[in-house]
């Protein structure tokens, strides 16, 4: 049996390396779910700024109930069990509140860090709704991964990767971890 020439072996290795996705690349499934949650967290910064500027309370149970009804309907239409949708969307609310409380505390302690421009909440909500729709799409697409025994480990790894891709600081990263708390199961 002959061995491939060293040049051929090097070429095969180089091609395999060149064609492989980067280690930090999104790969669908849980990676897309983590990215959708990170995008929603990023939009939540503007929610925090809008509420700070308007003096609006962070908690908004009426809005949460409406979003939960709407997204549960969207999720079940996409094949996601209603209970899963409620849990994951509820996690998004809690993650957003962690972020908002943290940012409000930061801004209270350090006025120089306060946002210079605060959007109107009515302008931010459509972006938040779009991020939530992407989350529901990713939730439906990741069903097999989310029920696998490796889900918790995969979700933690993808959350770290999404935090890196989205340049999240420790507060935003903590909110992202909370946003993915019910992803598996």
From TrEMBL:
Enzyme Commission number(s): 5.4.99.5
Keyword Isomerase attached: yes
Domain Chorismate mutase span(s) in chain numbering: 1-104
Listed SMART domains: CM_2
Keywords: Isomerase, Signal
PROSITE patterns linked to this entry: CHORISMATE_MUT_2
Any GO MF annotation of the entry: chorismate mutase activity
InterPro entries noted in UniProt: Chorismate_II_sf, Chorismate_mutase-related, Chorismate_mutase_periplasmic, CM_dom_sf, CM_II_prokaryot
The keyword Signal appears for this protein: yes
UniProt pathway: Metabolic intermediate biosynthesis; prephenate biosynthesis; prephenate from chorismate: step 1/1
Catalytic EC class: isomerase
Gene Ontology BP terms: chorismate metabolic process; salicylic acid biosynthetic process
Signal sequence, start to end: 1-25
Database matches in PANTHER family: CHORISMATE MUTASE (PTHR38041), SECRETED CHORISMATE MUTASE (PTHR38041:SF2)
Name under which the protein is recorded: chorismate mutase
């Amino acid at each position: 049996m002959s061995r491939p020439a060293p040049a051929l072996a090097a070429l095969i290795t180089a091609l395999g390396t060149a064609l492989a996705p980067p280690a930090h690349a999104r790969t669908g499934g849980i990676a897309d779910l983590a990215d959708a949650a990170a995008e929603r967290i990023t939009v939540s910064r503007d929610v925090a700024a809008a509420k700070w500027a308007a003096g609006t309370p962070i908690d908004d149970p009426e809005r949460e109930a409406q979003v939960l009804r709407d997204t549960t309907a969207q999720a079940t239409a996409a094949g996601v069990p209603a209970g899963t949708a409620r849990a994951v969307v509820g996690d998004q609310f809690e993650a957003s509140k962690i972020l908002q409380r943290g940012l409000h505390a930061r801004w209270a302690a350090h006025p120089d860090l306060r946002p210079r421009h605060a959007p109107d909440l009515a302008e931010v909500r459509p972006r938040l709704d779009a991020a939530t729709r992407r989350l529901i799409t990713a939730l439906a697409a990741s069903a097999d991964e989310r029920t696998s025994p490796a889900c918790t480990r995969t979700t933690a790894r993808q959350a770290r990767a999404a935090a890196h891709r989205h340049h999240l600081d420790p507060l935003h990263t903590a909110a992202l971890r909370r946003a993915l708390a019910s992803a598996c199961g």
